[in-house]
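Lab notebook: predicted structure, single chain.

Context: the supervisor wants predicted structures on file for every construct in the current expression panel, including those that have not yet been purified. This is the next one on the list. No modifications to the sequence; it matches the entry in the shared construct table.
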Amino acid sequence: MNFKHMILAGLIIFILMASVCASENADDFNNSTKITFEGIEFSIPLGFNESKDSQDFDELGSQGKTCFYINEYGGEIVITVVSDWMGMSLDELYKDGASKTEINGHEGWNYTEGNLTYFGYVQEDNGIIIGVTNETRLAQVIV
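Prediction complete. Output recorded below exactly as produced.
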């Protein structure tokens, strides 16, 4: 193999590795699967699979369920729906350091905790908290 072929092969390997590393950061809003979890519709991006059974959520003095999705690149999506929210305010989802923002028409609190960025909002008398490893995924998941 001559020098030009070695450089070309190295460049191809570099491009392939970069595309794999960038996959978690890709914003492909068209490739997703609609799911309904606890009566609320969400959109799960292509490549994410449910990682384990949903779990009960009993924080904040309320009852709900949490489901988990992961992809092969270490991306995570955590969705919690608190179904007995009934008239509680958005302010009860506030966390220290959170900023009030709007995503896809839903006003809520945006904050980071550990390796996840969260968005908490109220929809149809449900408290909803979504955590993602890549903040741009929030706009994909929230319908």
